[in-house]
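Exam revision sheet. Question 4 asks you to relate a sequence to its structure. Input first:
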Amino acid sequence: MPNPLSKLINPWYPSTAVGFEKGLITMVQLERGRAGTSSLRRAATVALPEALIRPSFDEPNISDLPELTAALTELATSAGLLRQKRWSVALPDGSSRSLILALESQPASNAELEEVLTWKMERGFGAALEELSISRERLSPNSQGRDRYLAVATRTSVLSEYETIVHSLGWRAGLILPRHIGEGQWLTINGSNGDGLLLSSSDNGFTAMVFRGKQPLIIRTVTCDPHECEDELYRLLLFYRDRRGGEADQMGQMLSRVLVVGNMLSKDRACEIVNETLGADLRPLNAEDLGLQLSTRELSFDAIAAPAGLATLSWQ
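Answer key, structure tokens:
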């Protein structure tokens, strides 16, 4: 089944990508290997002042555009990528929101479809649609045969901040998506008979995505304190088990792999909760499991997972 993001994004996919996050910028150039493997041709990271990027869906993200531009220029120079013109960009999760929209019935016309989707997106994103930049793609129907859509939104004013920095270097950003979408690509590359779970955490909580094949089945962003993460993960897994696990079990597609990214959730503890709740026997995936050869042990997979995941779209 084709990757649903192939229509959601522009029709060219560069192998170079940059990831913005609170306190960090990461840059990668990926090289395709044999049998679904990949390696880092170039990669670099640079630490930022904590207050320079403050991920937010509603408020300005970047406190000093010239300072962040200078940091990005220095990073690209050190990585030997300053002359690259085409880029994908991974935004901090707090800057964007993602929804899966399921229709309760079949609309009678395209106009009715747009009305229903507009109503659902306004409620889900909590903002007037004219204030947002939205990418939308139709997914395969759910188990009841109802149509589903993936929608990703960023406030136009917030998106403009990041675009201004990229354009100031003479670069073109043909693909700009939130961090969890990039990280989730690693669960779609080589395929699997079972569902895949991404747990992507940040200072404010975590985003969970369940993939069935190449398509997202569930997206949930949970805002919580660190001490609440385990309870929230447990609730999410109960929802999956009760609502989706039954149909997955019937199809022989129960959860078969878990990718944990970020520092809020302990990788081993997250997998322990998954195993206890679902009766599984899984361990957290690492870069090698995903077919990515890291050039040095000093480079963290967590830091590069989002931009590198977007870079894999150059050959998907």
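Marking note for examiners. The chain has a mean pLDDT of 90.
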